[in-house]
């Protein structure tokens, strides 16, 4: 495995993928797994993105050579129960799509289907499905499940060979693309007129875990808020018809789920309204404060448990182990 320095060697700065301007403010210089790249926010449109990025070849090579080392835990086959009983989170996604358009009889494409649960259940609901999956490990899982798929990346397919789709789904995929504009433009060419794009991404305004050491990631060159996701979709001719931001519990992941319709007009992203830079920077500051406070409380709880244990040992009393924030358990 190559070290972090190899993967994070960057090339020149890039303009904002949403509005094309170059003025930005640095948000963070840290990332998950110490694969540290600089995250910035565009001063014009408030899009949050990695800048500069490594060379495209290096970034794409990371997925081939190193992704499994960092994220290998997600390549296990799905448990048998999830193919006999529709998981609740999937049901919620289907229900949200069905509120806009019936699923039955639709042609559905999923980008990055992973273990194929969405495709499996979409097929069960009467859709004809196809997955585009670059990972050979996931493709073998899809093959075992008998799910139609192509082992390639999005730029390896075109409407002439695979046709057009009524629905394109991508869950936790859009934030991974080296160039989100290229990906959305490709999606548009694969989607029938008035077809639907269902997108789920992490919401940069509702981080989870440490913002700098967990939430911001090498494999997420783009970070979306409800406003910037809607704007980047509009830039490629998609009109948002449903947005769901999850709840306000910052202790569990709250994702941004958008369904957008493929329309013929392409709006100017610079007309998407005033930037929200100050609001986003303030939200980050506030989040970091809350996160640090949570860590301090955890540290204080552990220290207190240690002191109690020492004093009990001195007094010859049985020692009880207390786990704060989890299940208390006596070890006698
Ligand atoms: Zn911008």
Low-confidence stretches: 322-332
Provide the CATH topology of the largest domain. Answer: Rossmann fold
Main β-sheet: number of strands, strand sense, barrel status?
Answer: 7 strands, mixed
Radius of gyration: 22 Å
Helix content: 25-40%
| Beginning-to-end CA distance, first to last residue | 43 Å
How would you portray this structure in words?
This protein has 332 residues and is α/β, with parallel strands linked by helices. It has three domains: 4-70, Single Sheet (N-terminal domain of TfIIb), CATH 2.20.25; 74-276, 3-Layer(aba) Sandwich (Rossmann fold); 277-332. Helix content is 36%, strand content 18%. The chain has eleven helices and eleven strands. It has helices at residues 4-8, 56-65, 67-71, 88-100, 117-124, 136-144, 159-162, 180-190, 211-215, 226-235, 277-314, and strands at 24-28, 39-42, 48-50, 107-111, 128-132, 149-150, 165-171, 191-202, 222-223, 238-244, 255-262. A seven-stranded mixed beta sheet has the order 6-5-4-7-8-11-10, sandwiched between helices. The longest helix is centred in the last third of the chain and has 38 residues, at 277-314. It binds zinc ion. Zinc ion binds next to loops. Residues 16, 18-19, 21, 42, 44-45, 47 line the site of zinc ion.
């Amino acid at each position: 495995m190559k070290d972090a320095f190899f993967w994070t060697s960057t090339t020149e700065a890039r303009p904002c993928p949403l509005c094309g301007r170059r003025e930005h403010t640095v948000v963070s210089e840290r990332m998950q797994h110490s694969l540290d790249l600089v995250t910035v926010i565009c001063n014009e449109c408030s899009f949050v993105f990695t800048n500069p990025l490594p060379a495209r070849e290096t970034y794409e090579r990371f997925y081939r050579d190193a992704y499994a080392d960092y994220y290998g835990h997600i390549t296990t086959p799905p448990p048998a129960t999830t193919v006999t009983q529709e998981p609740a989170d999937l049901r919620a996604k289907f229900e949200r799509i069905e509120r806009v358009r019936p699923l039955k009889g639709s042609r559905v494409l999923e980008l990055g289907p992973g273990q194929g649960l969405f495709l499996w259940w979409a097929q069960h609901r009467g859709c004809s499905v196809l997955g585009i999956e670059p990972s050979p490990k996931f493709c073998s899982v899809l093959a075992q499940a008998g799910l139609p798929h192509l082992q390639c990346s999005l730029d390896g397919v075109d409407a002439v060979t695979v046709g057009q789709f009524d629905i394109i789904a991508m869950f936790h995929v859009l934030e991974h693309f080296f160039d989100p504009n290229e990906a959305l433009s490709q999606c548009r060419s694969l989607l029938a007129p008035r077809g639907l794009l269902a997108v789920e991404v992490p919401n940069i305004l509702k981080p989870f875990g440490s913002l700098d050491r967990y939430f911001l990631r090498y494999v997420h060159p783009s970070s979306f808020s409800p406003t910037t996701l809607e704007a980047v979709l509009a830039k490629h001719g998609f009109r948002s018809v449903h947005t769901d931001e999850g709840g306000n519990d910052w202790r569990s992941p709250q994702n941004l789920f958008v369904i957008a319709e493929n329309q013929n007009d392409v709006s100017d992203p610079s007309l998407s309204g005033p930037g929200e830079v100050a609001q986003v920077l303030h939200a980050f500051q506030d989040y970091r404060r809350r996160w640090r406070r949570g860590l301090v409380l955890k540290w204080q709880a552990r220290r207190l448990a240690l002191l109690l244990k020492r004093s009990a040992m001195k007094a010859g009393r049985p020692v009880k182990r207390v786990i704060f924030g989890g299940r208390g358990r006596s070890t006698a």
